[in-house]
Specification:
The protein is mainly beta. Helices cover 7% and strands 40% of the residues.
């Protein structure tokens, strides 16, 4: 049986967007939590009455490796989790506990990095997520503080709003002055007065980025710029959060495909 220590979660030295944990008596050099999440929604499948899996929607930082303290940078998307053989009832208890924080922006950690299998964040809203197996042996933790490690990265992650999915209509040929677009994103819940954002846009035609953007009043910021668009073009864009003292900061990604419009260019 693995021995787990709560003392590993004591924060210490900030290293960019992720934080090394403080040395403490009896601490182990590993964070056993397999998943950190900022949840929007939890859907029990095939239905809430007799579920055998759960789909989680939100942003996730996934622990990689059977030991250690590394988490992949957080990404918006979906996870589908199943239970280890014979452990469905135990998993349902934890899934319902995790689901209780959905929509609150509170960070929750769960699963076991030692035992979870095939945990992949599906970032394409049109794709069907592949189911992974949750690891048991570690508790659900609803974090009170989030100024360290993957919890901090999730709190500093902005949310792209649009354009996304089916994008704006575009002509067959790129308009001579480009096409003006408005990129909109929701602020990171952990932002402060020193936080800035950079939007980057890339397609097979061009790649560019904004200057650092000061957040607008309210919960969202928008940026208008001209983009080279033509019908059927895949455009990927992202929002990076920037703040003094954070060397490594999260990037939130989105994409859209342009539709077809009448070409009026002369």
């Amino acid at each position: 049986m693995k021995t787990l220590f709560a003392s590993i979660l004591v924060p210490s030295i900030a290293v960019g967007g992720l934080t090394a944990h403080a040395a403490a008596p009896d601490a182990v050099p590993s964070d056993p939590a397999g998943i950190y999440a900022r949840l929007d929604r939890a859907v029990f499948l095939p239905d809430a009455e007799k579920p055998d899996r759960v789909e989680l929607q939100g942003a996730f930082a996934i622990g990689v490796g059977g030991s250690g303290d590394y988490y992949c940078a957080p990404r918006w998307g979906r996870l589908v989790l199943t239970a280890p053989a014979g452990k469905l009832e135990e998993c349902l208890v934890q899934w319902r506990d995790v689901a209780s924080v959905a929509g609150t922006d509170r960070i929750v950690s769960f699963s076991s990095r030692w035992d979870q299998k095939d945990i992949v964040v599906e970032t394409d809203p049109r794709a069907t997520p592949k189911a992974g197996v949750m690891g048991l042996g570690w508790e659900v933790r609803k974090l009170e503080t989030s100024n360290w490690g993957p919890a901090q990265a999730l709190r500093m992650l902005a949310r792209p709003i649009g354009p996304a999915g089916d994008g704006p209509a575009a002509p067959e040929r790129v308009a001579r002055n480009g096409t003006e677009l408005e990129f909109v994103f929701a602020h990171a819940p952990g932002q402060d007065e020193g936080t800035r954002y950079v939007i980057a846009v890339t397609s097979e035609l061009e790649s560019f980025a904004s200057a650092p953007l000061t957040p607008s009043a309210g919960n969202t910021t928008s940026w208008r710029t001209s983009v080279a668009l033509r019908a059927g073009l895949v455009v990927r864009w992202s929002v990076q959060t920037i703040r003094d003292g954070l060397e490594r900061t999260p990037v939130a990604e989105a994409s859209f495909v342009t539709g077809k419009a009448a070409d009026r260019q002369r």
